[in-house]
Amino acid sequence: MFRKNIIIASLLLLLAGCASVGQKFSAGEPKNSLPFMAKDLVEEMHSIAVPPFSGDRQAWHEAAQEVIAQAPKASLIPQKKLDAAIRTTKKDPALLLLEERIEYVSKLGKSVQADAVLNGVILSREDRHELILQLVSSKDSRVLWVQTADFSFKDNQITRSDQKELLNKMLSPLIPLLGKREKPSRKPDKGVKPQQAPEDVSPM
Predict the structure, then answer these.
(1) Phi, psi of 199, rounded to the nearest 5 degrees
(2) What is the spatial distance between Cα 195 and Cα 120, in angstroms, rounded to a whole number?
(3) Contact 54, 101 (CB under 8 A)
(4) Average per-residue pLDDT in the chain?
(5) Residue 10 Cα distances to 4, 17, 175, angstroms
């Protein structure tokens, strides 16, 4: 009986240890209940770039790239192409402030022929962190979508699985819409009239 109690106690301690490891990372629900600024334009975004996030020390943008790559009708700008474009800017996107990043990521997206850029910013306050995600149009720096969520982790215990779980939750409304419809074709300028075929000239 004593040995049986020892075994049960050992199992309980083991389970408690596993539970404590699982609780190293925790995240809240997405906070923005109206994340879309222009859903129709989001549906026209076919190619997406995901540069390093501001304030990021755990490679969140790599996890975000994996999530964006799941979009059924949108493509991800390759990392090598993005890295080459970042080097030409002579700036580290991970060090830029939120107010500096909108114009920066828009120009970066345009340079790699991306329709939009997933802009990420991590704000840290002691042991609490806030992840801000924005979809920014490369064409005009317009913010098309935004979402935020709080998260925390202990003893630097954060895994790619933890990151993707939160990112999937935040990006789930966005992913199905990316590239959902074709971009409208450019309309001719109103001031330009179509040329008319010359009238037949009678030899008489």
Answers:
(1) -75, 150
(2) 49
(3) yes
(4) 83
(5) 10, 11, 45
The whole-model pTM stands at 0.78
Domain segments of the chain as ranges: 31-177
Contact 121, 96 (CB under 8 A): no
DSSP annotation of 175: G
Neighbours of 204 (CB within 10 A): 3
Fold of 31-177: Rossmann fold (3.40.50)
- Torsion sign over Cα 43, 45, 46, 48: negative
Amino acid sitting at position 116: A
Give the residues of the chain that fall short of pLDDT 50: 2-22, 189, 192, 194-204
Contact between residue 129 and residue 56 where contact means Cβ atoms under 8 Å apart: no
Write out the H or E segment, with its range, that includes residue 89: helix 79-89
What are the tens digits of pLDDT across the range 172-199? 999 999 999 888 765 554 554 544 444 4
